Amino acid sequence: MSSQSGSQTLSPLIPEILCLVGGIIAAIIIILPLETALNPPGILVGVIEEPAKLIAVIYLAFKFPECLSSKRRGLILGGLAGLGYAFTENLIYVLRPTGYECLYYDLNGQCVSVLPLMLSGTDIIGRAVLSAPGHVMFSGIAALGLVYFALKRIDLTKTTPKGVVSKFASKNVSSFLLLAIILHGLWDSLPAGPIIMFFVTLFVYYRLWKILPENLQNYEIPGFVGLVITIASPKKPQVARTSQQTNAAQTVQNKFCTNCGTKISPNEKFCKNCGTAQH
Predict the structure, then answer these.
(1) Tell me: the pLDDT tens digits for 237-254?
(2) Domain ranges of the chain
(3) Can you give the pTM of this predicted structure?
(4) 41 and 123 in contact (C-beta within 8 Å)?
């Protein structure tokens, strides 16, 4: 952990490791127990999984907001949280029997030995090819909202729980989370959902990468519906900026490293903390 200009930042790779491990831990102690207890329909699975997967990213947004300083950082850290969860979920699916088949019967016709049925090789490959990238994209999309949340620089000692919830519910934060939840729900509920929604999610992910500026603090998201329209539109969005936002854009351009989130001066071409070239 280092400190620059009075602002704490984490050493390189520490945020990435936290998010990857956070996805694994969330799968084991939060998501799988909740889904076992509630058994939600496929369309609602994302309501549980998407916020829970990002628990480490949310922690960083509160404690080390500089780690979430750009679009790229949101996609990377959110994607790593999704990858950690996907690894754990797929491992459990591979090791857990999908059913049982009787292997031997006694003379009375009673089953005395069962054979556990495991996922087929095709199913395992399918989960690796589709499910893992899907979780990476879902979490990356949701984490874009947490970039906006990190920009609020919330001090928990001065903010009430109601105030924190209201900031989470703001359109810049909630639009991305809601988008990830809906994509995930359709993935799990539509016939041939994983195949169809893989390409839909890939398109959404690609469009967000292309149309959103690297410095998200300079732009206001036009609400969930507006965001969906913007993604679907072939034109690059013309997002209006207030005079206050314009001044902020001129002040904070390249304020944080796009890789590790360390505070840097606007004219620096390389980060002194991790050496990454700044664009």
Answers:
(1) 555 443 344 444 444 444
(2) 2-241
(3) 0.80
(4) no
